[in-house]
Design a protein that fits this description.
alpha+beta, L,D-transpeptidase catalytic domain-like, 18% helix, four-stranded mixed sheet
């Protein structure tokens, strides 16, 4: 079940007014406990995708972020040049990106990034390009 958009907007406004849903057209809501990403555009849920986030010993930072940099093709400098297609970095080295390890989606399996299937990562990347990173918020919560 998708959480009410009104509750999301209120939470964003109380935590960080600059990143409020009222100021952002596109919101990527990452739910760590359910291992899913919900894409909300202008208050309407567009998509819900399985993700993999930080496994035991690794954490996925929680909070409200904005896209910092984006790369269609990226390879991890820290983890043996692992491919990270359609990477959207939001907090230092943490990103939402595609992963070819699709069998892990739906459960924690990463070093802290938010992994999507390659096709879902491409769709999300294209949405952020279209709407603009400045009009996008990334909410990661337990």
């Amino acid at each position: 079940m998708i959480r009410p958009v009104v509750a999301l907007a209120l939470m964003l406004m109380t935590i960080a007014p600059a990143a409020s849903a009222t100021a952002k057209e596109l919101v990527a809501q990452v739910d760590l406990s359910e291992q899913k990403l919900t894409v909300i555009y202008k208050g309407q849920a567009l998509a819900e995708w399985k993700v993999s986030t930080g496994r035991a010993g690794y954490r996925t930072p929680t909070g409200i972020f904005r896209p910092m940099r984006m790369h269609r093709e990226y390879y991890s400098r820290q983890y043996d040049d692992a491919p990270m297609p359609n990477a959207i970095f939001y907090d230092r080295g943490y990103a939402i990106h595609g992963s070819y390890e699709t069998g892990s989606l739906g459960r924690p399996a990463s070093h802290g990034c938010v992994r999507l299937s390659p096709s879902d990562a491409e769709k999300f990347f294209d949405l952020v390009v279209t709407v603009g990173p400045e009009n996008t918020a990334i909410l990661v919560r337990q």
